[in-house]
Specification:
alpha+beta
Length: 238
C-alpha cells in the first residue's frame, strides 16, 4: 500500500508538471508539488486540472449529502479561499498515508503562503481529524486553530448547537434544523445584530438558511448573511 501511494505521488507530480522536492526546513521525507485547482468539490476536497482529487489532510468538513449542519457553508468557505484556477502547493506528510481508499491524494494545501487546512479549522469551516489517532507535522497548529475557533464560536461552533469536538473522529455537527437545540445556546456576544430575535454568528463565513436552525425571524439591515431575499424583514421564511 505504501509503495502504491509513493508511485501515485510521483505520477501526480509528473502530471502537474512539477518535480517532487524536499520542503525547505522540513524533514527530507516531506515533499511538495505544485498544481492548479479545477474546482472545489466540498469543504475538504478539491479537484485538480490534471484530474487528481485532493483530500485535505488531518481535517474534516461536514458532508453535504448527510444533511449535516454547516455542510454547504463549509464548501462555500473553501471556494472563497481557493478560486478555480488557483495554483497551489501540495504538501505530503509521511509517514501518514499519501492516498485514501477513494484514490484521493492526502495533502496539506497551501495557497498564497497560507496553509488552508489550518485556515479552514481556524474559521470553523472544518474540524480536526487525526485519522487512526495519527498526528501529522501540523498537528499543533491545527489544535491551536481549533481552540481559537471554538473559543470565538466561529463557523460550525456558532451555527451548529449539536456540533461535537472530537479530533479522533469525523466531523459531527448535527442536523441543520430538525436536531438543532433552541436558539439562545450560542455564547453571549457572538450574535449578529442583524437578527435580534435569534442568535446567529456574524460572517464570515456566509451562511444559508439550511445552515441555521431558525425560520421566520426578524431581519434588519445590513442582513449580513442575506437571509431576507424578499426584503420584507423576515429571514428564512418557512
Amino acid at each position: 500500500m505504501r509503495r502504491t501511494a509513493a508511485i501515485l505521488l510521483v505520477l501526480a507530480s509528473l502530471v502537474a508538471g512539477t518535480a517532487v522536492s524536499d520542503t525547505e526546513g522540513a524533514p527530507a521525507s516531506s515533499a511538495r508539488t505544485t498544481a492548479v485547482v479545477s474546482y472545489v468539490i466540498d469543504g475538504d476536497t478539491i479537484k485538480l486540472t490534471n484530474g487528481f482529487r485532493v483530500r485535505l489532510l488531518q481535517i474534516d468538513a461536514p458532508e453535504p449529502g448527510d444533511g449535516e449542519c454547516f455542510s454547504r457553508a463549509s464548501g462555500r468557505e473553501l471556494r472563497r479561499l481557493l478560486p478555480n484556477g488557483s495554483r497551489v502547493t501540495l504538501e505530503t506528510d509521511p509517514p501518514l498515508d499519501l492516498v485514501d481508499r477513494y484514490s484521493r491524494l492526502l495533502r496539506y494545501v497551501h495557497y498564497r503562503g497560507v496553509n488552508l487546512n489550518v485556515e479552514l479549522v481556524r474559521r470553523g469551516a472544518a474540524t480536526v481529524w487525526f485519522y487512526r489517532g495519527e498526528r501529522g507535522r501540523h498537528a499543533a497548529a491545527l489544535l491551536a486553530a481549533s481552540r481559537s475557533s471554538r473559543a470565538g464560536r466561529r463557523g460550525i461552533w456558532g451555527a451548529c448547537p449539536g456540533a461535537v469536538w472530537n479530533p479522533f473522529a469525523a466531523a459531527e455537527t448535527g442536523g441543520s434544523r430538525s436536531s438543532a437545540l433552541p436558539p439562545r445556546t450560542i455564547a453571549r456576544g457572538t450574535c449578529d445584530s442583524s437578527y435580534p430575535t435569534v442568535c446567529i454568528p456574524p460572517a464570515p463565513p456566509d451562511l444559508d438558511c439550511d445552515d441555521v436552525p431558525h425560520t421566520d425571524f426578524r431581519v434588519r439591515p445590513p442582513d449580513s448573511h442575506r437571509f431576507d431575499g424578499e426584503g420584507d424583514g423576515l429571514g428564512c421564511e418557512g
